[in-house]
């Protein structure tokens, strides 16, 4: 059994009990020696952290716990650093969602111009963490769940020295949904970028099952944070793959914009209500388990994805996970240093990409290349406070395009988020 010290950055997140539930379920192979709960929000850090401590005690896990708002304190002795931050909290997300709609653009926390501004706010704070890790715990692994996970991991792997892997619960949800239908022994090929991904092959007993599933209109369960517009049979046949929920923003763009115009509450406002309900539950000193309401936040199987990845690294399991890592020649149409979301063998030395047997079609290639160009420009803009790089990012993104609308929306959002964009206001 491997002993580990874990630092959770953003531990006031109401997702945190989900994470601890994962460690509790994995206690036969992972022994928590210390957990540092770090967050600058004292109220949430205390309420959420207290529940996590009660959960650990109920499970019979005796480990040191540290509550702090000091990053350096949290990182002391860390073997694994988990980042689950929301810079500007849910009010900033609300602005990401409502401002773009005025300009006929999709407002969403991970894609389009809303996700772009989340990246601009977040990368400087992630950089503070990595700078600190390089000094205090240079051998620790950073497991990033902070959205937009693909862009954040693009920054981590190409602009820092830390050992890092990006993670999302979308792949594990999609693959599990497929295997519920086809059986646990089916071989599923998953390819893409974070929140821009497809299942491109499902093989069982030597037979390719994907065309049959498409013909039957199969699609994985939609994430709890996305209003389901579905994918038509004609759309699925044209794609030649099973898309993730987030591709509804690309394939059902007009419907998504209409929802955003009609909705009386932004998703951020809904999440604020759910979060307060959760915090009230968490404040009950008798509660010592993860409440079912947490699933409504959209983090289904988050703990399974995160803890199983940590388990594989800590215990050198050499099993396969879908993660965000450098391409390193795996997909020939992408650059080697492009961060992609693919299957990899995970062990003590990190992630080794699994060769992709199924050729990806030009539709998927084109979307991935366009969005990757956007992601690289987004990182450049965030690091340098560069307006020119920002506009290049927005103009290459398939959901944005129109220069005048993009420019006007960018300027309004830049002012709205000024408190978190110091590099743009030197």
**Unreliable runs:** none
The side-by-side strand order for the widest beta sheet comes to: 3-2-1-4-5-6
Instruction: Estimate the helix proportion, in percent.
Output: 40-55%
CATH class: Alpha Beta
- H-E order: EHEHEHEHHEHEHEEEHHEHHHHEEEHHH
Give the CATH topology. LDH C-terminal domain-like
End-to-end Cα distance, whole Å, is 50 Å
Which architecture does the CATH hierarchy give at level 2? Answer: Alpha-Beta Complex
What is the overall pLDDT average?
Answer: 94
Query: What is the name of the CATH superfamily?
Result: AglA-like glucosidase
Q: Judging from the principal axes of the Cα atoms, what is the shape?
A: globular
Strand content: 15-25%
The secondary structure category is: alpha/beta
C-alpha Rg (nearest Å): 21 Å
Number of domains: 1
**Sheet having the most strands:** 6 strands, parallel
- Count of separate DSSP helical elements: 16
Instruction: Please count the beta strands (DSSP E, at least 2 residues each).
Output: 13
Task: Characterize the structure shown.
The chain has 426 residues and is α/β, with parallel strands linked by helices. The protein has one domain (1-426): LDH C-terminal domain-like, CATH 3.90.1820. The protein has 16 helices and 13 strands. It has helices spanning 16-25, 42-58, 71-75, 89-98, 112-136, 149-159, 170-182, 210-215, 233-239, 248-251, 253-262, 267-282, 302-314, 362-384, 387-396, 403-416, and strands spanning 2-9, 30-38, 64-68, 80-83, 141-144, 163-166, 187-193, 196-204, 207-208, 242-243, 319-326, 339-347, 350-353. Helix 1 (16-25) packs across helix 13, helix 5 (112-136) runs parallel beside helix 6 (149-159) and helix 14 packs antiparallel against helix 15 (387-396). It is globular.
């Amino acid at each position: 059994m491997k002993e580990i010290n874990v630092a959770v950055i953003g531990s006031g997140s109401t997702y945190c009990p989900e994470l601890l539930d994962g460690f509790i379920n994995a206690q036969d192979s992972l022994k928590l020696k210390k957990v540092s709960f770090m967050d600058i929000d004292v109220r949430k850090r205390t309420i959420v952290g207290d529940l996590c401590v009660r959960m650990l005690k109920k499970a019979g896990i005796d480990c040191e716990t540290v509550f702090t708002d000091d990053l350096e304190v949290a990182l002391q002795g860390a073997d694994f650093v988990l980042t689950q931050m929301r810079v500007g909290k849910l009010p900033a997300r609300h602005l990401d969602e409502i401002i773009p709609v005025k300009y006929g653009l999709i407002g969403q926390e991970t894609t389009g111009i809303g996700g772009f501004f989340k990246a601009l706010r977040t990368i400087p704070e992630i950089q503070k963490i990595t700078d600190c890790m390089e000094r205090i715990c240079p051998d620790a692994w950073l497991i990033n769940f902070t959205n937009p996970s693909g862009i954040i991991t693009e920054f981590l792997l190409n602009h820092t020295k830390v050992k890092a892997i990006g993670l999302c619960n979308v792949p594990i949800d999609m693959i599990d949904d497929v295997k519920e239908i086809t059986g646990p022994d089916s071989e599923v090929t998953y390819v893409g970028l974070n929140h821009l991904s497809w299942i491109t092959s499902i093989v069982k007993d030597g037979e390719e099952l994907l065309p049959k599933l498409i013909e039957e209109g199969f699609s994985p369960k939609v994430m709890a944070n996305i209003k389901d517009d579905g994918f038509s049979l004609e759309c699925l046949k044209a794609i030649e793959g099973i898309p993730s929920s987030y591709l509804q923003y690309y394939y059902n763009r007009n419907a998504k914009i209409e929802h955003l115009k009609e909705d009386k509450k932004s998703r951020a406002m809904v999440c604020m209500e759910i979060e307060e309900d959760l915090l009230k539950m968490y404040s009950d000193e008798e509660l010592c388990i993860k409440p079912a309401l947490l699933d409504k936040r959209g983090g289904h199987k988050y703990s399974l994805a995160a803890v199983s990845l940590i388990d594989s690294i800590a215990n050198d399991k050499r099993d396969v996970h879908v993660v965000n890592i450098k391409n390193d020649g795996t997909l020939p149409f992408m650059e080697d240093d492009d961060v992609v979301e693919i299957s990899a063998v995970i062990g003590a030395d990190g992630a080794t990409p699994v060769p992709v047997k199924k050729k990806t079609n030009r539709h998927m290639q084109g979307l991935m290349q366009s969005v990757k160009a956007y992601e690289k420009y987004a990182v450049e803009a965030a690091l340098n406070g560069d307006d020119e790089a920002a506009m290049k990012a927005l103009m290459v993104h398939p959901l944005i395009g129109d220069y005048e609308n993009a420019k006007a929306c960018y300027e309004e959002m830049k002012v709205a988020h000024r408190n978190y964009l110091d590099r743009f206001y030197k």
